[in-house]
Design brief:
heterodimer, A: about 280 residues, mainly alpha, ABC transporter involved in vitamin B12 uptake, BtuC, globular, B: alpha/beta, Rossmann fold, six-stranded mixed sheet, four-stranded antiparallel sheet, 6 helices, 10 strands, about 25% helix, P-loop_NTPase (chain B), transport (chain B), ATP binding (chain B), ATP-binding (chain B)
Chain lengths: ~280, ~260
């Protein structure tokens, strides 16, 4: 239980720290796609009797860098290339897992939807080290990553190493997806990257505050999710995601209510002058 | 030594040449406007100078260094046509302007006092210091444009490159921005800007380069506006997208957007 909680808390912090950049560049679903590719890595690991976490990190990283190179070329066929990559990834994973010694459908479900209880101490060590690396990289490079995600051409003219930063983000996505597969599972990883950010940005005004708030929401959802799932005997991954969604709904409704209250108290009085010469409509 | 030196530049996309044999230069402290109709290739020209679009033929030197070997990007402040489409993640005016310091300080160093001062100075220069903590999306189009100028100024560049800085900008912002550019020039900065129409920027311009159908048609003092553009009460408004009409329609050629 303590191991499970520790793993969940690390992911709860790391996933939104990365997710905010993905949301900013409108790649909210990329985590999901990389999750599909990581499944092939799991299959490779099980087949070779190696740690599936390590092999999944490697295969997902290769996939993520490939996606980034396709995106960089900006061709319209990129969308199709991504689809091929993702479905190839999940189909490859299913086939390889079936070929391995551990070929029960149970083991597949473990990776697709997460299974903290079977997490070994070695797994937790890997999750802790990689998770810490993700958090440090995302926080330390915030100004540069923000600049690249906000306006890539401007970043390039500023002489920033845009490609290196994009590849850093791609590899970080792969790492986050893979370490999160034990907690929330490959199919729900993206949720933990995106939902806390979506919730935070309802009430924040700046990028830094959004990042901090999203990480706090992720941490709380993951922590409470593990505890609740243990009490209620529900799967921890799905429970965490539902909690995060509940936070999103609560914040959205609360913010809307607050705006209505404030508008009643201070009706808008300032109207900017029109920027055009007004003509009478005949 | 010239700040920008373009010699016999040719640029094309997908086999179609857009600029043919273009040569001009920007000297230190000079303000040069690239004028031309939409689709004339003027935006492509500055994108090529900045290295965003590759050259097919010819040479470009920046501050005396061939562009391929040029690494001192902090000396150039780029002001794009507009702020990228918002993705929903909020960012404050201060955060956007702070991006302009990255070229100077590098990505590994944390911001220092000098960086914060430069951001505040740049915002003061464009008259937006009071909005530093507001989300950029709450600003008007003209204020967003001023934010982008502040971002470029924050890096303390020697050359400002602006792409259509006055397109769709309210009169108050145009004035604020002409004043900021004037102050930049008076401290020895060079300016290269692309414009469709000069408006309040006209008194600043030392030289105009008119691009027509991918070639330079005129170099010298800014030419007088022609046709209906010259009418004293001409309110120059261009829609950002030409509406598709059914059937046959004849559009004025200067309103056909690039691409």
């Amino acid at each position: 239980m303590m191991r499970a909680l520790m793993g969940a808390l690390i992911i709860g912090l790391a996933a939104p720290a990365l997710g905010i950049y993905l949301v900013q560049r409108r790649l909210s679903l990329i985590g999901d796609g990389i999750g599909h590719v990581a499944l092939t890595g799991v299959g490779v690991g099980l087949l070779l009797n190696q740690s599936p976490v390590i092999s999944a990190v490697i295969v997902a990283a290769i996939g993520a860098v490939g996606v980034e190179l396709i995106r960089e070329r900006g061709r319209t066929s990129g969308d199709l290339a991504l689809a091929l990559l993702f479905y190839g990834g999940i189909a490859g994973g299913v086939v390889l897992v079936a070929l391995s010694d551990d070929a029960s459908s149970n083991s597949l479900v473990q990776y697709l939807f997460g299974s903290l209880i079977t997490t070994s101490p070695e797994d937790i060590a890997v999750i802790a080290v990689l998770g810490a690396a993700v958090i440090v990289a995302m926080v330390a490079f915030r100004p540069a990553l923000f600049a690249v995600c906000n306006d890539e051409e401007y970043a390039r003219v500023s002489g920033l190493p845009v490609r290196a930063l994009n590849i850093l983000m791609a590899v970080t996505t792969a790492v986050t997806v893979t370490i999160a597969m034990r907690t929330v599972g490959l199919l729900l990883v993206s949720a933990l990257m995106v939902i806390p950010v979506a919730a935070a940005q309802q009430v924040t005004r700046g990028f830094r505050t959004t990042m901090a708030a999203a990480m706090a929401i992720g941490l709380v959802a993951a922590g409470v999710g593990v505890v609740v799932s243990a009490e209620a005997d529900t799967p921890p991954g799905a429970t965490t995601v539902i909690l995060a969604l509940a936070v999103f709904v609560a914040i959205t409704v609360g913010a809307a209510g607050w705006r209505i209250v404030r508008r009643r108290a201070h009706p808008p009085h300032e109207v900017e002058p029109p920027d055009v010469v007004l003509q009478e409509v005949r | 030594m010239s700040v920008v030196n373009v010699r016999h530049a040719a640029v094309g996309y997908d086999g179609r040449e857009i600029l043919h044999d273009v040569s001009f230069e920007v000297g230190p402290g000079e303000v040069v406007a690239i004028l031309g109709a939409n689709g004339s290739g003027k935006s492509t020209l500055i994108r090529t100078i900045l290295g965003l679009t590759p050259l097919t033929r010819g040479e470009i030197d920046l501050f005396g260094t061939p562009q391929r070997k040029f690494r001192d990007w902090a000396r150039i402040g780029y002001v794009p046509q507009r702020l990228g489409a918002g993705s929903g993640v909020p960012a404050t005016v201060g955060e956007v302007v702070a991006s302009g310091r990255l070229a100077r300080r590098g990505i590994f160093r944390m911001p220092r006092v000098a960086d914060k001062t430069a951001v505040r100075d740049a915002l003061t220069d464009v008259g937006l210091l009071d909005r530093i903590n507001d989300p950029v999306t709450t600003l008007s189009g003209g204020q967003q444009q001023r934010t982008l100028i502040a971002r470029a100024l924050a890096g303390k560049p020697d050359l400002l490159v602006l792409d259509e800085p006055t397109a769709g900008v309210d009169a108050a912002s145009q004035e604020a921005f002409a004043a900021a550019l004037g102050r930049f020039q008076s401290t020895g900065g060079s300016i290269l800007l692309v414009a469709h129409e000069l408006g309040p920027l006209r008194p600043l311009i030392d030289r105009a380069v008119v691009v027509h159908e991918g070639r330079i048609a005129h170099v010298g003092p800014p030419p007088e506006p022609a046709g209906h553009h010259a009418e004293p009460d001409h309110d120059h408004v261009h829609p950002h997208a030409v509406q598709q009409a059914n059937g046959i329609c004849v559009a004025p050629t200067d309103r056909i957007p690039a691409n």
